[in-house]
Structure prediction request, 542 residues.
Amino acid sequence: MDKKEIYYKHWVDLEAEILVDLNLPSYVINTGMAISGTLHIGKCRSDLICPAAIATRLKHLGKNVKHYLTLYTQDPLKARPPLVKPEFAKKYSGVRIIDVPCPNGCCDNWIEHFLNPFISTLTHFDVDPILITTTEMYQKSEMKRIIREIMNKREQVRDIVNRYRGEAKKPEDWIPFNPFCNKCHAISSTFTKALTVDLDNWTAEYECSKCGDHGFSNMELGKLDWRLEWTAIWQLLNVTFEPFGKDHAMAGGSRESCSILSTEALGFEPPRGQPYEFVSSLVEGKPVEMTSSGGVSFSFDEWPHVAEPKVLKYWYLFMKPMTHLDFSPSKIPHLVAEYDWAESMYFEIERTEDPEKMLAMKRSYELAHNEHPPKKLPLRVPYDHATLVSQIVPDLSDQEDVLKVLRRTQPIPKKISEEGTQYIMKRIHRAHYWAAKYAPPRYRLKVLSEIPTDIQKKLSKKEIEALHLLADALETREWTPSDFKAEIYRIARETTKIGPKRFFQVVYLAFFGQPSGPRLAPFLLSFDKNFIVKRLRELNKV
Prediction:
């Protein structure tokens, strides 16, 4: 066996081994998501899918593991257009998000609007973290104990925080707590300031610059300064491991300062961390950071509509954590193809000359299946072709018609199980959804009812002859896509000599009125043969 194969280990396995070496009686993995807007797939790389894989690995190694997903519901609203209208953003800026109404008026509140679709999608991804909100945390007696300790060590805490604040030092009267305004429900340090805290009655005296109120509010309704909140959550949940975005990882950054707060002020060791690169959205070809509050994202609950959830899991697990990823809905066929390729590798249908890459693909495929991959290769259809077929079949609820069209170009057995049929149909429906909502023009089919006169005038005698020869070829035998592709090239190069590029353009013009379209051979073989032949012979030779 190749030495690379002998020594290769997946990054998830390596991280799990490091944690196992800590030799702890139990392990707590924690991640966090602010419910500041759309819970997008970018968040789910470091805060859901990858830590869930590490938790699963630890469980397979016989360890007692809890995987928490902390939901930051006690944060102030920072939403901005295009996520919300300007007037909404202004009115509720800084308001505790659990008190913000639904921006679309379809749910009871902001949290329900953005969190419920996320929660209902977790089962599709086969991940099951323990969900806990910061609102719940601030009601816990242990959290109150930690807050008391922080307040009693205010001078020490302020000194540590000020090490990382450059010229903008916290003043001597700074209280590291953001109180809740009883009148406008603001909780942001931009608007509310704690004047005093009464740890016996658990109240904070505050003044609010948003609405001008001054009063006393229950400290359960407020929150710690964000650095101290992060540190307090580590202690509250007894966190062993927590991934974080690369923006927190820089020297002198928030991860470092929170670690110092935990060791010097609160007297406990911070959890092991793992930095992650961002997942960007490609907007007009340029990467733009996904953001919940700004509305630049691809929603987590949208993914199962366009592709198998394991496709996204595989992508995130195959790519190392500090690899920057760019996403666009137009990349979905490519991502599905990469997953299918890994599946073929796993079942040894295909191989690659790079043994380390092959092992990485196979192991990532296992991890995407929570280490319980299928026992045999599923019956599948390439996503590109599923997109084509989904637009050809008039009624996708007619499974037999779908399978009939598929069998013209794919090796689909005459008798397949109900499970196999459903697997195929799910991909067909997902591809259809993607084609209708996200596909670039070249994927979208709109076959002309007839060849327009202006196109007819542009075609030469040799080009029309090539169309007729293609019709003749279709009638002579049953073709496979690869053989028919070769025949198209033969007609273009040898018989008519118009060249493949021009011949492809001519065929696309005949069917779509434009010089480009889907892969030609599968398209021609998927459609009803009589229709294709009739269209190819529609023009008379001149």
Remarks:
- The first strand starts at residue 27 and ends at 34.
- Residues 418-437 form the longest helix (20 residues).
- The radius of gyration is 29 Å.
